Amino acid sequence: MIDPKKIEQIARQVHESMPKGIREFGEDVEKKIRQTLQAQLTRLDLVSREEFDVQTQVLLRTREKLALLEQRLSELENQGKSAEVKPAPAIPPVDDQA
């Protein structure tokens, strides 16, 4: 969630940049700007910088683990190829008529 202080700061800046006639409505206009900003930013489904950084670190660790697992799988596949047992020669059938 976005820091409420930031929203207040933006609302104040917008209010101050308005023409003098509108600014005379005072806190009502600033309050309405703040509410509108909050509502619109909520709809954007944003994440905080802290949350983004945490998820970036999780992704990096996951990629590292995946690389290690891929390497291990490759090693195991190579071991399996070198340790393959050759099939035993076929045993001739026994003749029961003797």
Walk me through the topology.
Elements: H1 4-17, H2 20-23, H3 27-43, H4 49-82
Description:
- InterPro entries: UbiK.
- Keywords: Cytoplasm, Ubiquinone biosynthesis.
- This is Ubiquinone biosynthesis accessory factor UbiK.
- Residues 77-98 are annotated as: Disordered.
- With 98 residues, this protein is mainly α.
- It folds into two domains: 1-46, no CATH class; 48-77.
- It has four helices and no strands.
- It is rod-shaped, with a radius of gyration of 35 Å.
- It starts with a helix and ends in a 16-residue tail after the last helix.
- The mean pLDDT is 81.
Described by the principal axes of the CA atoms, the overall outline is rod-shaped
* Domain module tally: 2
- What percent of residues are in strands? under 5%
- Low-pLDDT stretches: none
Order of helices and strands: HHHH
Counting H and I runs of at least 4 residues, what is the number of helices? 4
Number of strands: 0
Main sheet overview? none
Please tell me how large the radius of gyration is.
35 Å
- Span between N and C termini? 90 Å
Q: Which structural class do the helices and strands define?
A: mainly alpha
State mean pLDDT (0 to 100 scale).
81
Helical amount among residues, as a percent range?
A: over 70%
Organism: Kosakonia radicincitans
Region (Disordered): 77-98
Family: Belongs to the UbiK family.
Pathway: Cofactor biosynthesis; ubiquinone biosynthesis
